[in-house]
Specification:
Helix content is 34%, strand content 23%. The two termini are 28 Å apart. A hairpin with a 4-residue loop joins strand 4 and strand 5. The chain contains eight helices and nine strands. The longest helix has 18 residues. By secondary structure, the chain is α+β, with helices and mostly antiparallel strands. The strands form two sheets. Strands 1, 4, 5, 6, 7, 8 and 9 form a seven-stranded mixed sheet that branches. The radius of gyration is 19 Å and the shape is globular. Helix 3 crosses helix 4 and helix 3 packs across helix 7.
């Protein structure tokens, strides 16, 4: 038996049938992280000609936490069973066409990469989209789907969901892979000036979580009995309760917070050579 199957409790098996997917199985939550040390590291990297951002560090921290602390939630549900992903692939929302259109970039095996490697890969993929129009597999199908009249569009989307997730097959002629959105979706709404947001669990995504990071703000924090001004990054998370429960969310949050306190470690590769 797959070792990860040991994490599947009777409640989780019941939840597959008790909840619809994922319209009534959502858990929401917010938390904050002191990223003062991360921002200092970013400033030092700028002096060396490297343009790192808070998004790159969050990708690395979330990916490593998902892989090392809560690997049992790196899965999706198909035909009433949990299907575990072999790798941690992070899906990042990207704004294109001067902010009028949204698409996504996948960072594959993000848990193995350093922050600098994530930066390079993300820049490379975004350039393909913005300059060459090469969107992620699956996202390039949205223009075709949007032209299908309603209600035929709804029926067609249901057919795609059945074909891709229940059967685990690539959809013919639309170039939609069997698992297009990876392990979780991350969106930086702070770049839009927003502080806190709670994202929707996209039914076609089949991801256990959607994480949004907001605008960094300076706030007073008590450290060793003294009030100090620190840079605080707000997070908003939406989780699929059929897959994730409170204990796992706690591990996920604490793991990400712990890793973001050590930016130098995140900027080292995390793979076995």
């Amino acid at each position: 038996m797959n070792e990860k199957q040991n994490y599947i409790s009777p409640w989780r098996l019941l939840a597959i049938s008790a909840y619809k997917a994922p319209s009534d199985s959502k858990i929401y939550g917010t938390f904050e992280v002191d990223v003062t040390d991360v921002l200092n590291y970013i400033e030092k990297a700028k002096g060396k000609g490297k343009k790192l951002t808070i998004t790159h560090f969050v990708i690395a921290a979330l990916a490593r936490t998902l892989h090392e602390d809560v690997p049992e939630i790196n899965c999706y549900i198909t035909r009433g069973k949990f299907k575990f992903r072999k790798n941690v692939n992070i899906c990042i929302s990207v704004s294109i066409d001067e902010g009028t259109e949204m698409t996504a970039v996948i960072i594959k095996k993000a848990n193995e990469l350093s922050v600098s490697e994530i930066c390079d890969k993300l820049n490379e993929e975004v350039e393909k989209i913005r300059l060459k129009g090469e969107e992620l597999e699956g996202f390039d199908a949205k223009k075709f789907l949007s032209k299908i009249p309603w209600p035929f569009r709804t029926w067609f989307v249901k057919l795609i969901k059945f074909w891709v997730y229940d059967l685990g097959l690539k959809f013919p002629f639309l170039n939609i892979p069997s698992d297009p959105f990876g392990s979780l979706i991350l969106s930086n709404i702070g770049s839009l000036g927003l502080t806190v947001g709670l994202g929707a669990l996209f039914p076609l995504g089949r991801v256990p979580a959607v994480i949004m990071i907001g605008k960094i703000q300076d706030k007073p924090v008590v450290i060793n009995g003294e009030i100090k001004i620190r840079s605080i990054l707000p997070f908003g998370g939406t989780f699929d309760h059929r897959i994730v429960d409170g204990a796992q969310i706690s591990k996920f949050v604490l793991g990400a917070v712990h890793r973001l306190q050590k930016p130098e470690q995140l900027d080292k590769p995390n793979r076995k050579e």
